[in-house]
Design brief:
17 strands; eight-stranded parallel β-sheet; three-stranded antiparallel β-sheet; 10 helices
């Protein structure tokens, strides 16, 4: 990768461009002939060094998005910003809180402040997440759509995992969630993603700069980091299989999620950056086909050649986890022409065949 040199315009800045999703965004943009600059901290929780998959055709600024001087240097000459840099995951415990808020919210605020100071007039794409919704959308057979009350520790301990109707106490049926749903973050990471959106949309209102927030659902694919407290569920299961262990699935394994391939996510970013008219607001980025966590773990075991390693359903639960959340992809299709293309079965086979990132 080339170091930042000269003052020639480089149209697109990708923060976090050495990371799992960010590097695929960089590749997608380069494949379309775009000039790309990467700003990345190479945080030790995510990287030991600069990954060898990062393209040499992109320019590199090594530094922290929370550092104003570094950000100003990285923004020199750019006409679009794709903000992927973030600390991800539920967090280990409350001792992570300041790190999440610092990297995600202070980092975003520093970037937006620098953009405003430079009178930036391009477009911004923000990496958001389905975690902003908390619990997904639900309906009661008798009372129609209802908000899902928080699940009590007593019910979870007793294996009663399904949210209950607040009016009659019967189980609620999950439904696809759209972008207009209320935001109800259930953990620290989710709260920081909501705040990132609020900061970005406040910036958009004050400056007139169009901001598109892409709410990624459960992303999987090549270059995922190996098993860490901050890794995605697919990575955690793949790490267990690589150690010869059966994946451990929380609750009863019937939690529904939308698993979307990282190449589809990268394409959604490219479309958001290049659409004839920028979309102002939030869009779900998802496959549109929900699956249970248990199904995904079983599919990954088969794809990895370990069909006997069927997942262990533990019945355990974690504070901050939600039961069901999966997306309606309709608005992204209408606004950007985005439809997920990667096949789940072949995607899982490819994912299982590749080593996870150290």
């Amino acid at each position: 990768m080339r170091n930042l040199v000269g003052s020639a315009a480089v149209p697109i800045l990708v923060t976090g461009g050495a990371g799992f999703i960010g590097s695929h965004v960089v590749d997608a943009l380069l494949s379309e002939g775009e000039e790309v600059r990467v700003l990345d901290l190479l945080h030790p929780l995510a990287h030991g060094s600069l990954p060898d998959y990062v393209s040499e055709d992109a320019e590199l600024v090594l530094g922290d998005v929370r550092d104003r001087e570094t950000v100003e240097r990285a923004l020199r000459g750019v006409t679009a910003v794709c903000h992927q840099a973030a600390m991800v995951g539920l967090g280990v415990d409350m001792s992570d809180m300041t790190d999440f808020v610092s990297h995600n919210d202070l980092g975003t605020a520093t970037l937006l402040e620098a953009l405003a100071a430079q009178r930036f007039r391009g477009r911004v794409v923000l990496a958001s997440s389905m975690v902003v919704y908390g619990e997904g959308r639900y309906a009661c057979a008798e009372h129609g759509e209802q908000p899902a009350p928080p699940r009590s520790p007593a019910n979870l301990d007793a294996g009663r995992f399904e949210p209950r109707c607040p009016r009659c106490g019967n189980s609620l049926e999950p439904r696809p969630i759209g972008e207009g749903a209320p935001l109800a973050p259930a953990n620290v990471y989710a709260a920081t993603k909501v705040h990132q959106e609020h900061l970005a949309f406040a910036f958009a209102r004050e400056t007139g700069v169009p901001v598109t927030a892409l709410r990624y659902h459960n992303v999987y694919g090549p270059r995922m980091p190996r098993d860490t407290p901050y890794a995605g569920v697919a990575s955690i299961f793949a790490s267990a299989l690589a150690r010869g262990e059966r994946p451990r699935v929380f609750e009863d394994g019937r939690q529904r999620r939308d698993f979307v391939h990282v190449r589809d996510v990268a394409r959604a970013n490219r479309l958001a950056l290049s659409a004839p008219e920028p979309y102002r607001g939030a869009l779900n980025v998802a496959s549109g086909t929900p699956r249970t966590v248990g199904e995904m773990a079983a599919e990954l075991a088969v794809a990895a050649g370990h069909p006997s390693s069927y997942p262990v359903v533990t019945g355990e639960w974690r504070a901050g986890d939600v039961r069901h959340v999966f997306a309606s992809p309709d608005r992204a299709r209408e606004a950007l022409g985005f439809v997920a293309e990667e096949d789940f079965d072949s995607g899982m086979r490819d994912f299982a065949a590749l080593p996870l990132r150290a």
